[in-house]
Amino acid sequence: xxxxxxxxxxxxxxxxxxxxxxxxxxxxxxxxxxxxxxxxxxxxxxxxxxxxxxxxxxxxxxxxxxxxxxxxxxxxxxxxxxxxxxxxxxxxxxxxxxxxxxxxxxxxxxxxxxx
Length: 115
Prior knowledge:
By secondary structure, the chain is mainly alpha-helical. The protein has one domain. 78% of the residues lie in helices and 0% in strands. 38% of the residues are buried.
């Protein structure tokens, strides 16, 4: 389950980066047209890039982890990305949250047999 959670988080992080770049593009166009609130949209885009990259990193770590810490950090970064990343980034962060929950189910290593 933890490997599947890590893979899901990696995919969500990649889609989150794409969504964050789209948000940055929209904010840049708004800034060029001197639209009100364009700087806020650009800030949301950078927040989405940051948290999407964190989801990619923690998803990769969670695939081979033996503890629950990467899963917890993945859930925290998914929630942060959903809040600070904007609307387009929030949808992939839901998928990253599911990946974080799946990566919490870590199988305990079997004790080594003494032969």
